[in-house]
Amino acid sequence: MKKGILKIDHNGKKIEINYFYSFISKSEITIDREKYLNICQKNCNYYGKNYSCPPYAPKLSDYSKEYTKLFVVMFRIKMSQIDIEDNFERLKTSNNILRQEIEGLMRKLESCNKSKFLSSGPCKLCSRCLAVIDKPCRYPEKMRYSLEALGVDCAHLIQKVFNKKMEWFENGVLPKRTSVIAAIPFDEVNLKKLSKRADALIKSIAK
Ligand code: SF4
User: Fold this and answer.
1) Are 131 and 48 spatial neighbours (Cβ–Cβ below 8 Å)?
2) How far is Cα 178 from Cα 17, in angstroms, rounded to an integer?
């Protein structure tokens, strides 16, 4: 596992993001598409209302037929760095910052791989996903599926890859930190290339 600190500007203030990245073999990933389909259907407002989410997302094995590993990246932020009083808004802003940074990185990494990256959470490229009004996706080349939608157990994934636990917003209590993850399925052939590119990209944004 590689890890370090990125410093980015947010509204004129320097913010530190902890980054972690590593690989995991296909056989070690816990996938249960049916389970997440049911959880999303019962508990999530995005079910059937966003093309990156269930039931639209494919199986991971169909999404990337030849993959043997997942390259996984996690960005984590201490929320005390964000000056917003409302707990929920602070969490939302923190997650948006992390998402923007991690997606920028993953889009650059895709250039040395056949598969597109997988995000966490629903696609937010449009203010309202066109799935809601039954129209085709506006940016099919740019949208990315979420890992959960493909059935990946993300809590298990970060435990296994980074030995970290997910921290949740529960009963109005804000966790100290929040994280986002993203991953790219790849085959053995691309391992060296992907790894070198990730090192170079992270170095270029880590200050
Ligand atoms: S690009 Fe727009 S229409 Fe397509 S999945 Fe994302 S939000 Fe929905």
Assistant:
1) yes
2) 10
The token pair that represents 47 in the structure block = 């079910």
Burial class (CB in 10 A: 0-12, 13-18, 19+), 13: exposed
Q: Counting beta carbons within 10 angstroms of the beta carbon of residue 162, is it exposed (0 to 12), middle (13 to 18) or buried (19 or more)?
A: buried
Report which ligand 1 atom has the smallest distance to the Cα of 52.
5
Q: pTM of the full predicted structure?
A: 0.91
With a 6 Å cutoff on the Cβ, whether 129 touches ligand 1 is: yes
Query: Which of 125, 127, 133 for a ligand 1 pocket mutation test, highest count of atoms within 8 Å of Cβ?
Result: 125
Q: What is the pLDDT of residue 143?
A: 96
Determine the atom of ligand 1 nearest the C-alpha atom of 50.
8
pLDDT digits (tens, 9 = 90+) for 174-199: 889 999 999 998 887 777 777 788 88
Model pLDDT, residue 202: 78
